[in-house]
Design goal:
This protein is an alpha/beta fold. Helix content is 33%, strand content 27%. The protein has a 9-stranded mixed beta sheet, with helices on both faces. Strands 1-2 form a two-stranded antiparallel sheet. A hairpin with a 3-residue loop joins β10 and β11. The chain is globular, with a radius of gyration of 17 Å.
C-alpha cells in the first residue's frame, strides 16, 4: 500500500519504522499516560530530533512548568540543547500565568484565539515546524463540562492545523490506575493518532509499555511495544 502523505520522523527509530516514516505532517497527535511514564521525554525527543537532525525549528509550549526549570531538567537528562536554543532551532514558551482559572462558555473563542495567536506569532518569527503542548489540560482553563472541553479542543486543533500547519504533539495525563486514554476522555477522538505510555509490574519488576491505539491514515494495527528511557538519548524501543 503506497503512502502519499509526507511524514515527520519522531526520532524513535523502531517506532518511526512501524509508522511508515513517522507522523503525518501538519497533523496533531496525543501522547497520554500516568505521571512518570515518559510523556515529556517523548515530546522533547520529537522536537530535538527535528531541530538537530532535520533543521526543523520546534516550539515547546508549557502550561504548568517554569521554562528555566524545564530546560535545566533537559540538560540534566543529558540532552545538549544549548546550541539548538542559541541557533533558534528550539524555543520554549511558558503560558503558566497567562490564562485565568476558568472561562465561561461565552469566552471559548477568546481562549482558543489567545493561545493560537501566541503560537502563531512564534511560528512566523522562527518558522516553527514542530509544536508541543505539554500538557493540554492547563489550556482548557479549568473547565470540566464535557461539551465545552470537546469544543475547545476541537477548535484548538483545527486552528493550529489551519493557521500554523506544524506537526503537533499534545500530552495528556491520566489518573493513576485508570484505563482512560486522556484526562477528559475526548482528546483521543479529535487527534489524528494516540500513543499511550504506561508502567506494568511483572515478575522481573516494572516494564515500560507504549501502546499505539490509533493512527489515522496509517495502515497499522493497534500494538504494544516495550521501551526504555535512556539518558541523553530518550525513548528506545526494546527488541522483543
Amino acid at each position: 500500500m503506497g503512502l502519499t502523505r509526507a511524514r515527520e520522523p519522531i526520532g524513535i527509530e523502531k517506532l518511526d519504522q512501524i509508522l511508515h516514516g513517522g507522523l503525518i505532517r501538519g497533523k496533531t497527535y496525543l501522547v497520554a499516560g500516568e505521571t512518570g511514564t515518559g510523556k515529556t521525554i517523548f515530546a522533547m525527543q520529537f522536537l530535538i530530533h527535528g531541530a538537530s537532525s532535520l533543521g526543523q525549528p520546534g516550539l515547546y509550549v508549557s502550561g504548568d512548568e517554569d521554562i528555566e526549570s524545564l530546560i535545566n531538567g533537559v540538560r540534566e537528562f543529558g540532552w545538549n540543547v544549548d546550541e539548538l536554543i542559541d541557533t533558534d532551532r528550539l524555543h520554549f514558551l511558558s503560558l503558566v500565568s497567562e490564562f485565568p482559572e476558568k472561562f465561561d462558555s461565552k469566552a471559548l473563542k477568546i481562549g482558543v484565539r489567545t493561545l493560537v495567536e501566541r503560537i502563531e506569532k512564534w511560528s512566523k518569527q522562527f518558522n516553527i515546524k514542530r509544536l508541543v503542548l505539554d500538557p493540554i489540560a492547563p489550556f482548557i482553563l479549568g473547565e470540566d463540562r464535557l461539551n465545552w472541553v470537546r469544543e475547545y479542543v476541537r477548535r484548538l486543533i483545527t486552528e493550529i492545523e489551519r493557521r500554523i500547519g506544524c506537526t503537533t504533539i499534545m500530552t495528556s495525563e491520566v489518573p493513576t490506575g485508570s484505563n482512560a486514554l486522556s484526562r477528559y476522555g475526548i482528546e483521543e477522538y479529535l487527534a489524528s493518532g494516540v500513543i499511550v505510555l504506561r508502567l506494568e509490574k511483572g515478575i522481573r519488576g516494572y516494564r515500560r509499555i507504549m501502546v499505539i491505539r490509533k493512527m489515522r491514515w496509517t495502515p497499522i494495527k493497534p500494538m504494544e511495544l516495550e521501551f526504555d528511557i535512556v539518558p541523553g538519548k530518550g525513548i528506545v524501543i526494546v527488541e522483543i
